[in-house]
C-alpha cells in the first residue's frame, strides 16, 4: 500500500521539489477518497505522494529544514531515510525501542543530552530535556521559566509574526491558527524596539521573553545583533529569562549549528526540534542547569519523550554533520542561492528583497513600483512552479514571501535547476 505523506498546516511550512509527474492522478484520487480520516482543518496542500515516486536525481526539496537525513510530515522530503540514521535506528531496535526515561534511563538519551549541552551556545553548565515535538519544547521552556522565576508573564515577539508559541493551550497557537482556542493570555512585543517591553507589562511579572533568531512564519527576518544584545541586557536587568526558539533555525540551517552562535549573546533556554533527528519525532530544551532544575520532580517529560529510537537517529545526524562538514555546506548553499536569486531580482523589480541567514533564504514580493505586499503574485508563482514540477510555499505576515530551504546535501546543479524554474515563473508574470 502506498505511503501517503501528509503536509500539516501547509501555510506554515514550505518545501521545494523538482521532479517529473510530481503526484499522479491515481494517487490524488486515492488520497482524496480518504480525506475524512483526518480533521478538515488539518490543511493538506499537496494531497499525497507514494514513497520513492520521484527519482532522487530529479528532486530538490526546500523546507525540509536541513539535510538528507530528514523526512517528516512537515518537511515532506520524499526520499528514504539516509543510511546513517537508518542503520542507527535498526541497531537501536535490537537493544531497546521504548521505555519511559523517567522510569528507566537509557544510554542514547544521556549521550544525546551531553552532545546538545556542548552544541548550545553559552559558557555555563547546561542540562537538556528531550521531548517529542517543537510545540512541547516551547511549552516546557515556558514551564521551566515560570518555575525558575516564580512569574507567569510571557512575551513572544510579535503577534502577527510569531512562530508556534505554541500548539498547546498554555501559550496558544498563533493567528490565524489560534481561532476558537480560547482566551489569549500572551503579550506580544513590537519588533524591533525592545524598550517597549517594559511598557507592555511590569518587568516583575514577566518570566521570559521568547523569540526566534530568524523569524520563520513571519517571513525569514533575521534578528539584528544589536536587538539581541539589548534584549539580553534587559533580561539581565529585570531577572527575565531569554528563550531562543531554534526549532526552525537549529541543526545547521543558518550556517552554525544554532543561530544564536551568530548573535553575540547566549540565551538562558534554547528549544530545538525538526531535523535534529533526521525526521524522527524528537525535540528538546537546553538551558542553564539551575533553571532546568527548578521544576519539581516529575514535572517534566512524558511517556514517549526522548524515545531511544529518535535519540539514536539524532546521534547519527550529529555525527554526519561533523563528518561531512555540513555547516560549511550550509553557508555555501546559502551563498549560491542568494547570488542566484539576486540575479533574478535584477530582472524582475517586483522582487523587493532577497534575505536570509546561512541557507535560510526568503524572497519578498511587492506590487510593481510600490512597497505594497503582493500575495497574489506569490500565489501565481507558486501555481506556475507547481506546474513545472517545483513545489513552493509562502510565508510572511502578508503572504508575500517565498521561502527557500533546501537540503544541505543538494548538489549545485540541482540548486541551479531550481533557480531556473523560479526565474521562469517570474518571467511569465511580466
Automatic annotation (TrEMBL):
PROSITE patterns given in the database record:
AA_TRANSFER_CLASS_3
Tagged with keyword Cell wall biogenesis/degradation = no
Q: What GO MF terms are annotated?
A: identical protein binding; pyridoxal phosphate binding; transaminase activity
Family, per entry? Belongs to the class-III pyridoxal-phosphate-dependent aminotransferase family.
Q: Which UniProt keywords apply?
A: Pyridoxal phosphate
Can the keyword tRNA processing be found in this entry's annotation? no
Query: What is this protein's record name?
Result: 4-aminobutyrate--2-oxoglutarate transaminase
Needed co-factor(s): pyridoxal 5'-phosphate
| Organism listed in the record | Ditylenchus dipsaci
Database matches in Pfam families: Aminotran_3
Instruction: Please list where the region (Disordered) is annotated.
Output: 64-89, 150-172
Gene3D superfamilies given in the database record: Aspartate Aminotransferase, domain 1, Type I PLP-dependent aspartate aminotransferase-like (Major domain)
Amino acid at each position: 500500500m502506498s505511503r501517503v505523506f501528509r503536509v500539516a498546516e501547509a501555510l506554515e511550512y514550505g518545501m521545494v521539489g523538482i521532479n517529473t509527474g510530481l503526484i499522479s492522478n491515481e494517487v490524488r484520487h486515492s488520497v482524496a477518497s480518504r480525506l475524512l480520516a483526518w480533521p478538515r482543518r488539518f490543511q493538506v496542500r499537496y494531497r499525497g505522494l507514494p514513497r520513492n515516486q520521484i527519482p532522487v536525481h530529479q528532486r530538490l526539496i526546500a523546507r525540509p529544514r536541513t539535510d538528507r537525513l530528514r523526512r517528516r510530515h512537515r518537511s515532506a522530503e520524499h526520499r528514504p531515510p539516509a543510511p546513517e540514521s537508518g542503520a542507527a535506528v535498526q541497531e537501536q531496535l535490537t537493544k531497546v525501542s521504548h521505555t519511559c526515561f523517567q522510569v528507566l534511563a537509557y544510554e542514547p538519551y544521556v549521550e544525546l543530552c551531553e552532545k546538545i549541552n556542548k552544541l548550545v551556545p553559552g559558557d555555563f553548565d547546561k542540562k537538556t530535556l528531550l521531548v517529542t515535538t517543537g510545540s512541547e519544547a516551547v511549552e516546557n521552556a515556558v514551564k521551566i521559566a515560570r518555575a525558575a522565576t516564580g512569574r507567569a508573564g510571557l512575551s513572544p515577539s510579535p503577534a502577527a509574526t510569531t512562530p508556534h508559541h505554541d500548539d498547546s493551550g498554555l501559550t496558544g497557537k498563533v493567528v490565524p491558527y489560534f481561532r476558537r482556542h480560547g482566551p489569549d493570555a500572551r503579550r506580544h512585543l513590537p519588533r524591533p524596539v525592545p524598550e517597549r517591553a517594559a511598557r507592555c507589562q511590569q518587568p516583575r511579572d514577566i518570566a521570559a521573553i521568547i523569540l526566534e533568531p530568524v523569524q520563520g512564519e513571519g517571513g525569514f527576518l533575521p534578528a539584528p545583533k544589536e536587538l539581541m544584545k539589548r534584549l539580553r541586557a534587559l533580561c539581565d536587568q529585570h531577572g527575565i529569562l531569554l528563550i531562543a526558539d531554534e526549532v526552525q533555525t537549529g541543526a545547521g540551517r543558518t550556517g552554525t549549528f544554532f543561530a544564536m552562535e551568530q548573535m553575540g549573546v547566549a540565551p538562558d533556554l534554547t528549544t530545538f526540534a525538526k531535523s535534529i533527528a533526521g525526521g524522527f519525532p524528537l525535540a528538546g530544551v537546553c538551558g542553564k542547569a539551575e533553571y532546568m532544575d527548578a521544576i519539581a520532580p516529575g514535572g517534566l517529560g512524558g511517556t514517549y519523550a526522548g524515545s531511544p529510537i529518535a535519540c539514536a537517529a539524532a546521534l547519527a545526524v550529529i555525527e554526519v554533520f561533523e563528518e561531512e562538514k555540513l555547516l560549511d555546506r550550509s553557508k555555501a548553499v546559502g551563498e549560491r542561492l542568494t547570488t542566484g536569486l539576486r540575479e533574478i531580482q535584477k530582472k524582475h523589480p517586483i522582487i523587493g528583497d532577497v534575505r536570509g541567514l546561512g541557507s535560510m533564504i526568503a524572497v519578498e514580493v511587492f506590487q510593481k513600483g510600490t512597497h505594497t505586499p503582493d500575495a497574489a503574485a506569490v500565489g501565481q508563482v507558486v501555481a506556475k512552479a507547481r506546474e513545472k514540477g517545483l513545489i513552493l510555499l509562502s510565508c510572511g505576515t502578508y503572504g508575500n514571501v517565498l521561502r527557500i530551504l533546501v537540503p544541505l546535501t543538494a548538489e549545485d546543479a540541482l540548486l541551479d535547476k531550481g533557480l531556473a524554474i523560479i526565474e521562469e515563473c517570474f518571467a511569465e508574470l511580466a
